[in-house]
Amino acid sequence: MSVAGYVERNRLGIGGAVATVLVALALAVALDLPIESIVTVGFIERSLQAATPIALAAIGGLYAEKSGVFNIGLEGFMILGAANAAAFVWLIGGESPTQGDLWLAILAAVLVSLVYSLLFAVLLVRYRADQIVAGLAVWFIGLGFGPFSAVLIWGNRNSPGLASVNDVTVPVLANVPVLGPILFDTSPLVLATAVAAVVAWVFLYRTRYGYWIQAAGENPEALDTAGVSVRRVRYASVLFSGAMAGLAGAVLFAHAGSFTGTGDTMVNGRGWIGIVAYLFGNYNPIGAAAAALLFGGLDMLQIQLQTAGIELPNRLVNLFPYVAVVIVLTVWGSTRMPSAVGESYEKEE
Amino acid sequence: MSDDDRSRARALLDDAAVRMLKASALQRLGIAIASTALALAIGLVVVAAAGYDPVTFLADVFEGAFGDENSIGRTLKFTTIFVLVGVAVAVAFRAGVFNIGVQGQFIVGGFATVVAILWLAPLFPAGTVGGLALLVLGTLAGVAAGGLYAAIPGALKAYGDANEIITTIMLNFIAVGVVGYLVEGPLRGEGNRAPNTARIPEYVSLPSVVFDSPDFSLVGLAVALVVVGIVSVVMIRTRIGYDMVTSGHQESAATFSGVDAGRTVVTTMAFSGMIAGVAGAVFAVMIQGYYSDPGGVATYGFDAIAVSLLAANNPLGVVPAALLFGGLDSAGTHIGINSDVPPQLIDGIVGLVVLFVAAPELFRMAARRTGLGGERR
Predict the structure, then answer these.
(1) Cβ B177–A151 below 8 Å, yes or no?
(2) pTM here?
(3) What is the model's pLDDT at position A285?
């Protein structure tokens, strides 16, 4: 799929995104809002940070769905990833963990997520569990066991302040105006996510294995006839999606520096927004990452409005991303799902 | 989603429904029991791994659920709410609509009930008669609010092709945010330090029968059971119910017999949301007596999904399933007070129950392999 082809096929979506931005700008001008103090370098930096976990979860989720398995449990895997990363940081580094401890904890959390998603994949692929219900169950399990482990370790559903990831500053380049602080003086996880989105795109559309994943979702019989195991491809995709969602949770924790387990936990719907991000990006990893950036920006808008002196209640401004999701889905619900999503594949004997 | 995709999504639901129907009532009961037992067993392993005594924990669970009159009252209190929200989910799932938004509809409904009672209270005489009138009007407000809030995702699905799973989940977050904002600021009771509305008048309450508990009344449970009866009759004996179920199972057949698919989706969602509104009203009047920040309100509407699935989405089956969950929640409360085990474990166990209910094949295979269960298929 070339860039031109992508534009061709997604005219409506891209048009919608452009129109949204234009309407927002027009409104800002009409209401005489101070644009310069809303769209600042800091805002873009924060939006990128907020978008990172959403984008990672979205990339994982779209791989699973491309292969024919709807992993609706992203939210749950994210909660478990965040809780585990926090727990590992505490176990490895104690009260004052170092950056090395933090990276080790992220790695450990991803490995544990792999184990979870293997169990999940066995239930989905081998035991043909209902994908929607099982995915919801993962969410409930996360909502229960995430805070449970926090209470077990810290005696509280929220962890104390542990460690957040340091920005990486590239000398000289960081001093470039605008681009410098955004690209060369930021969390390394933001850059890693951008790279991951591109790699995921190349892998999905430019490698043989990527074609297998697409075939497993579109035409499993053909893939089977070609001598490739549909089950194996689906297992791999679900494992990847679970690991990515776990990583997304760990990254969310690494940016925040502590785990929050009250209410809907610190993940607070980001996994669900991830699903909408890849739908909005039409299953394209780069498109999904761009959509995640849109939602991340909406999430960070409240700080900007505050500094610009616009008094809106926090609780209501925090709802922007959720409202946007509903509108996006309704106005632009015309995603084409892969043909065989949700169907378990029975090999012909 | 194109038409093609929609028919595929429908085929998926059909498939799930057929699998459900194929299972005999006994088999379904077996799956429900096995799921719960397996989830509890894993919970016990976690308890042991966390360094607590699983036997004591299990004893605490039973003690907290059915140990004395106090705990039985508490169990029935939770059961009442679970019956109502469970039926709300069952109605939608039966009709092939995934209403995950019962939690939001429950919150909006309960909040509307409290606000309506507070606003109307000055217009009615204080006392039993006024209390009854306010109770009825408040409940109606809750039902209307819940129904309308559910009709939104219904209409978005029917006419905008927006996946209801995601829109209803988003609307849950929105309900919590908006109601939370309202009780924090504009509608906070005068002089309240906590973000709560004012209390509804003392005389607007359900009378306590048998159980002398401030937050449980057998009348509430009776209301829940009456709703179950009404819903069963509507689903089986009326045209609307028939349309809902057939369009859930076989859309094409329903369309041929002249059913407007889009309108049925909206009706189904509204009906489901209205029941969630009743649940919200009962919760607000019987348990809370005011409305607090919904961020802290228990997740009845989510657990309701487990309740409904355990009951194979049958309104009558919801009653025993709700009793099980009422018992689990009551045990959770007991454990939170009397034991060191974090009560969040119960939420995790509920999640595991849902996970296993989603995979009936797991138990079928296990039964076949061990030769137990005697199912010849």
Answers:
(1) no
(2) 0.86
(3) 95
pLDDT digits (tens, 9 = 90+) for B272-304: 999 999 999 999 999 988 898 887 777 898 889
Q: Does B16 touch chain A (CB under 8 A)?
A: yes
End-to-end alpha carbon distance in chain A: 35
pLDDT (0 to 100) of residue A287: 92
Between CA B75 and CA B86, with CA B80 as vertex, the angle to 5 degrees is 115
Q: What is the CATH number of domain A42-331?
A: 1.10.3470
pLDDT in tens, A130-157: 888 899 899 999 999 999 999 999 999 9
B376 within a domain of the structure (yes/no):
no
Under 8 Å between Cβ of A271 and B169: no
Q: How close is the nearest chain B Cα to the Cα of A124, in Å?
A: 8
Give the residue from B102, B59, B64 showing the smallest Cα distance to B83: B102
Mean pLDDT of B202-216: 80
Q: Which residues pair with B292 in a beta bridge?
A: B196
Q: Tell me which of A155-169, A181-195, A335-349, B287-301 is least confident.
A: A335-349
Contact residues, B window 156-175, toward A, CB-based 8 Å cutoff? 156, 160-163, 165-167, 169-171, 173-174
Residue B377 placed within a domain: no
Domain ranges of chain A: 1-32, 42-331
Q: Say whether A133 and B365 touch across the interface (CB within 8 A).
A: no
Nearest to A270 by CA among A122, A24, A56: A56
Q: Given CB atoms, is B305 within the 8 Å cutoff of chain A?
A: yes
* Inside any domain, residue B375: no
Band the pLDDT of B238: cuts 50, 70, 90: confident
Listed by number, the residues of chain B in 278-297 with a beta carbon closer than 8 Å to a beta carbon of chain A are 295-296
Which residue in chain A is spatially nearest to B293 when comparing CA positions? A263
From the CB of residue B27, how many other CB atoms can be counted at a distance below 10 Å? Answer: 18
Cα–Cα distance measured from residue B164 to residue B216, given in angstroms and rounded to the nearest whole number: 34
Give the closest of B176, B348, B358 to A148, CB-based.
B348
B346 and A CB contact within 8 Å: yes
Q: Which two tokens stand for residue A175?
A: 């001093």
Q: Is the pLDDT of residue B377 over 70?
A: no
Counting the structural domains of chain B, the total is 1
Average pLDDT over residues B67-92: 94
Q: Cβ–Cβ of A140/B296 closer than 8 Å?
A: no
Q: Maximum distance among all alpha carbons in chain A?
A: 69
Low-confidence winner among A182-191, B114-123, B319-328 (lowest mean pLDDT): A182-191
Could A272 and B166 be called an inter-chain contact, meaning their C-beta atoms sit closer than 8 Å? yes
pLDDT at residue number A200: 96
What CATH number is attached to the domain comprising B82?
1.10.3470
* B265 interfaces chain A, CB cutoff of 8 Å: no
Which helix (H) or strand (E) covers residue A186, if one does? strand A185-186
Give the integer Cα–Cα distance in Å for B105 and B85: 10
Burial of B276 (0-12, 13-18, 19+ CB in 10 A): buried
* B261 vs A122: which has the higher pLDDT: A122
- CB A263 to CB B295 under 8 A? yes
- Give ipTM to 2 decimals: 0.85
Q: Which domain holds residue B245?
A: 3-370
pLDDT-based confidence at B159, cuts 50/70/90?
confident
Nearest residue of B to residue A271, measured between CA atoms: B166
Q: Which of B3, B164, B166, B184 to mutate to test the interface with A (most CBs of A within 10 A)?
A: B166
Please judge whether A144 and B359 are an interchain contact, meaning their C-beta atoms are less than 8 angstroms apart: no
Residue A293's Cα: distance from chain center in Å?
10
Angle between helices A270-280 and A41-66 in degrees, nearest 10: 80
A275/B166 Cβ within 8 A:
yes
- Check CB contact under 8 Å for A334 and B365: no
